[in-house]
Design brief:
There is one protein chain. 39% of the residues lie in helices and 15% in strands. The protein is built from 15 helices and 14 strands. The strands form 2 sheets. It has an 11-stranded mixed beta sheet. A 3-stranded antiparallel beta sheet has the order 1-2-3. The longest helix has 31 residues.
Length: 447
């Protein structure tokens, strides 16, 4: 329930405690960063207040209004891409893998990014006349495998680091790789230039070999990266094949790769892997249950575990993705690093700029604004949804690839996870302040 003309929500959760669903509700004000539990009486009293039926004698309601009230957000959020501090560069569209769930398989080709065009974008991005010196982030990522064109990739990293020093910026570089082409020389370079390696890896041998390949080689190369002093993060794409083995995967990371600085388990996006929306719902239900258990294992083992929603840095999210400055191998600038080739269905609509043959970076700001306007304010179904400022209207690419009934299952999962996260935050506070679990607190309050 969304209170009239506000960004305050009441989220039923009584069923989790064996009560009528609306008997216990979460009051959630995302813009005030406030959450609390309330009973049906208090929710009805708040609703009356919003409808103009003021009750000055109800001090509790007035206190809640003072704490939680946030007017409806009527202005569509805007973003100035020219002020971005994050750049993604896709060096090539070549890959030596054929992953079963690959989002960019249709775009494979021999096209390689022109080095001078890449340098032109780096000159534009790392430039004190564009924005005040600060910390920038450069992601060298796939459409292909970045290490397949290592002379180009390494040259761009070295150039970015040198230019950042000259222009007075700090810059963090992350290289996303399938891990199969790593050599000791590559690892030494990444260490020397203080890069993070994000290795896409399914961890368990049978999962990796069935869905991606070369488990033993990638395992050895991950250890090689660590030996050379490279920060290593692992990324697993969770599919119907792996969703019931997630706890094994986390335990394996803890045991065999204790040096890993972060582990991402992201649910796959692929309509082809699910026969129906019902199958997708079952997958998301299994992912939710397993992820909650995995989180407990990760905390115990000291692993930083995440997926898109479970990321404390997101805050208020008007758009699921902030809108990328992403340089593709053709020299085009895309809003999404998942759409990198003209062979992909939505490529043309995602492009909003390019590097000209003369080395000029051209950005169509109006076109970017239209793309950025595909955000939480644009979708009717988001209007009264309590999860909207957490999910940001969902991933544009996922929206483009899933039919409406599949997308509803994604939204169902998003709502479930946001509710879980809010309840966990309430319970953490209760344990700290009163030494009570959420269940104990509710039982005391409903006696």
């Amino acid at each position: 329930m969304r209170f009239k003309k506000s960004e305050l929500f009441a989220i039923p959760c009584g069923e989790l405690f064996g009560l009528a669903d609306e008997a216990i509700q979460i009051l959630y004000s995302p813009f005030r960063d406030e959450i609390a539990l309330a009973d049906q009486f208090m929710v009805d009293a708040l609703a009356a207040e919003y409808e103009g039926r003021h009750d000055a004698t109800n001090k509790a309601v007035q206190e809640l209004m003072n704490t939680f009230h946030q007017d409806e957000v009527s202005v569509r959020p805007k973003r100035d891409i020219k002020q971005t501090t994050r750049l993604s560069v896709i060096p090539n569209l070549t890959c030596n893998f054929a992953c079963s769930y690959c989002y960019s398989a249709k775009g494979r080709s021999a096209v390689v990014l022109d080095e001078q065009k890449a340098r032109a974008v780096l000159d534009y991005f790392i430039n004190h006349t564009r924005l005040e010196p600060c910390h920038l982030s450069l992601f060298v990522t796939g459409g292909g495998e970045p290490l397949a064109t290592w002379p180009l990739t390494s040259g761009l990293i070295a150039y970015a680091k040198r230019r950042a020093g000259t222009e007075g910026f700090g810059i963090g570089v992350s290289v996303i790789t399938n891990g199969s082409l790593v050599t000791s020389g590559i690892a030494a370079f990444l260490s020397r230039y203080d890069c993070t390696a994000g290795v896409s890896f399914e961890v368990l041998p049978e999962l990796q070999d069935r869905q991606r390949g070369m488990w033993a080689r990638v395992r050895d190369n991950i250890r090689c990266l660590h030996k050379e002093g490279v920060r290593v993060k692992l990324n697993s794409t969770i599919t119907p094949l792996s969703v019931h083995r997630m706890e094994e995967m986390v335990a394996c990371v803890a045991q065999d790769y204790p040096f890993v600085t972060g582990y991402t388990m992201e649910p796959v996006t692929s309509a082809a892997l699910f026969e129906s929306a019902a199958h997708l719902r079952a997958f998301y239900n299994a992912f939710f249950d397993a992820y909650v258990r995995c989180s407990a294992i990760a905390r115990r083992e000291g692993i930083t575990l995440r997926f898109t929603f479970d990321d404390g840095s997101r805050g208020i999210t008007p758009r699921h993705c902030p809108g990328k400055l992403c340089l593709t191998p053709m020299g085009k600038i895309s809003v999404c690093h998942l759409v990198s080739s003209p062979r992909e269905e939505h490529f043309a609509e995602c492009v909003y700029g390019e590097v000209t043959d003369e080395g000029q970076v051209w950005i169509d700001e109006k076109r970017f604004e239209r793309l950025y306007d595909r955000n939480v304010c644009a979708y009717t179904a988001c209007r009264d949804c309590f999860a909207k400022w957490d999910c940001g209207g969902e991933c544009m690419t996922r929206r483009d690839n899933y039919p409406p009934d599949y997308l509803e299952e994604v939204c169902r999962f998003n709502r479930r996870f946001v509710r879980y996260r809010l309840l966990k935050a309430i319970e953490d506070t209760l344990k700290q302040e009163q030494g009570l679990t959420l269940k104990q607190y509710v039982e005391n309050e409903t006696k």
